[in-house]
Amino acid sequence: MRKILGITLILIIPVLICANAIKGNQGERPLFAKNIVKVQLSKEADSITNLIKSYRSQSHSFGIDALDEFAASWGEHQIIRAHIRMADRAFEEEVGFDRWVILEYKERIEVLDAVKAFEDQKRWVDDACPEYYAYPAVVPNDPWNTSNWGHNNTGYNGPGSGTAGFDSKAHLAWDQSQGYGSSNIIIAIIDSGVDTSHPDLRLMAGYDYGDNDSNPMDDAGGGWNSPRGHGTACSGIAAGIANNGIGVSGIAGGCTVMPLKIATSSGDLPFTAINNALTHARNNGAHIISLSLGAAVDQDNSGLSATNAALTAAYNAGITIFAATGNENASTISYPANHEKVIAVGAASPSGQRKSPSSSDGQTNWGSNYGVNTQNNRKAVDIMAATILPTTDIRGSDGYASGDYSTGFNGTSCATPYAAGVGALLKSRDPSLTPAEIRTILTSTATDMTYDGGVGWDRYTGYGLVNAYQAVLAAGGPECEITSPQDGDLFQQGTTVTINVNATDTGGSISNVKFYIDNQLRYTDSSSPYSWNWATSGVSLGNHTIKVVATNNQGKTAEESIVVTLLGAPDEGFESGNFSAFNWDNSRAIPWTVQSSEKFSGNYAAQAGAIGNNASTSLSITLDVTNAGNISFLSKVSSEANDYLRFYIDDVQRGQWSGNQPWAQQSYSVSTGLHTFTWTYVKNA
């Protein structure tokens, strides 16, 4: 049914604190901006102000004499609408998220005094606060980590001495039905931005709320203490593309990253940008949010009501939120990790210890923050994840390293996207899981870390190291696999392709399996064995996606997709049973033959002559190409190691194949003019 060297001459002629640990002196890390006051207008003030409602709209006055006079008493300023609109307008109105404005003064002011004074303007102001800054939670370090111990700890592939087997069991997790995760599951990386051209990241559209433009490129300023590169690194930890032959594999390497930049051109991570990024993620379909940043404040602090509202809105929309505990080796965890709707993630060393200045990894300048000694308290650590891992970097020399990858991304900044990626695997396994259910699964399946706090939950390591394998097993639900055809298979247009599916559910029963072609539902099978015959007559040539979705008796689903290719009928003339249809040159001592036992489609294919050692045989044809395009053919090879099938255009070798190669389509560009195409089989080359 397949045809190889059925030389199908198909001439297709188209014309914040990033939670990584910063090594050494960081200089001043201010808690808030020195020239900004954030004000939540009262409903009365908001209804009569001349400041229009759209995001980033600006004015030099409110149009309210008493409030304008008071604001001007602190200095020359401009007024800016702080937040984008929430999709849930009822919740937005309830919490007053849309009534926040920024008063940006030209000179530094006594911000805390101004905040208190604005709060006293009871008629016009409901709340006021500084513009708090977050900071990354990662430390750039020398490249020493050449493999990811978080996926598979050999005891030797992490920093310092490790404990073999203390890892997330990623390889076992990837063997389950969700694989590396679904590209439909979106992880919002709220950070310094992402290298938008990196070949090892699967990205969707994002936004830059630091500088307020549509380009989330990871290019913040700020000198040596800039967060630049941090978001790209976090993205690779969570979702560096898996199984693509390059770079790194994120824990959820099949999922998609939504890049949301909150870093300003000066390298700051203001909370107003965080609020807008959280709202953007909620409004645009994110499933997971990863925040490798934090500030030394608590959710009850005055002025954090807008951030609390944005976190709650995202959680209520079904988004699971992960945030870093911080890197100060302190007994309090950072905000927003200490928020009640957020999963707080600490960092583990490869030996099973909490990452601390004295843990086995050898990095003495930082430690993972730990929280209160009350289980399930919002100020306590929930889970731990690996740190000091290889990941994606800004391409070139603008990131942590001089290439496209860095080998030692660290801090709770590294641990947080790792845990978030495991959450994305769970969501891929069962899209119906709620944030509360994902937290329960992660905490109940984590590997207990007994070194710091003994058996069971403890304040230093929470429930323990995230265990991806046990987590996806606990998520349960159906599993399905397309047993035939295989991903990448080739078929001639007009044939009937039988699609066979194995669907099971150990905790329930399969209700049905739906068959989709290019996302169009074509058939539903409600009884095992699950199968459908796809008639391809009239279907367009080229690649087509076959997707199957299994649904169990609880309404949970699992899916798998493959891509197959439909090819047109060959037109090389071999269906005549010989080489007479076209002007083939087959004049070698041991010529090629047209035979019928090995073929991809039709009745015949050409086969190389049976040559001996140190010999060769060739088949060629000269064609006048009138339009530039591609020459495509199918080939199948079964040879010894030093034997080759080689393809030439005008005596220039363009490809070669050896060993056992199944039928595969080859395609090469061709310019206009007279060209000679040659297929040569050579033994002992």
Present the secondary structure layout.
Blueprint: E1 6-12, E2 32-41, H1 43-48, E3 58-59, H2 65-72, E4 77-81, H3 89-95, E5 100-105, H4 111-119, E6 125-132, E7 135-136, H5 170-174, E8 186-191, E9 207-208, H6 230-239, E10 256-261, H7 271-283, E11 288-291, E12 293-294, H8 305-316, E13 320-324, E14 342-348, E15 383-386, E16 389-392, E17 405-409, H9 412-429, H10 435-445, H11 450-453, H12 468-475, E18 479-484, E19 490-492, E20 496-504, E21 510-517, E22 520-525, E23 530-535, E24 542-552, E25 557-567, E26 593-595, E27 605-607, E28 616-625, E29 629-638, E30 644-649, E31 652-657, E32 660-670, E33 673-682
Parallel strand pairs: 8-10, 8-11, 9-10, 11-13, 13-14, 14-15, 19-25
Antiparallel strand pairs: 1-29, 2-5, 2-6, 3-4, 4-5, 7-12, 16-17, 18-20, 20-23, 21-22, 21-24, 24-25, 26-27, 28-33, 29-32, 30-31, 30-33
Helix pairs in contact: 6-9, 7-8, 9-12, 10-12
What does this structure look like?
The chain is α+β, with helices and mostly antiparallel strands. The chain is built from twelve helices and 33 strands. The strands form nine sheets. The protein has a seven-stranded parallel β-sheet, with helices on both faces. A five-stranded antiparallel β-sheet has the order 3-4-5-2-6. The model is unreliable at 1-18, 21-27 and 138-146 (pLDDT under 50).
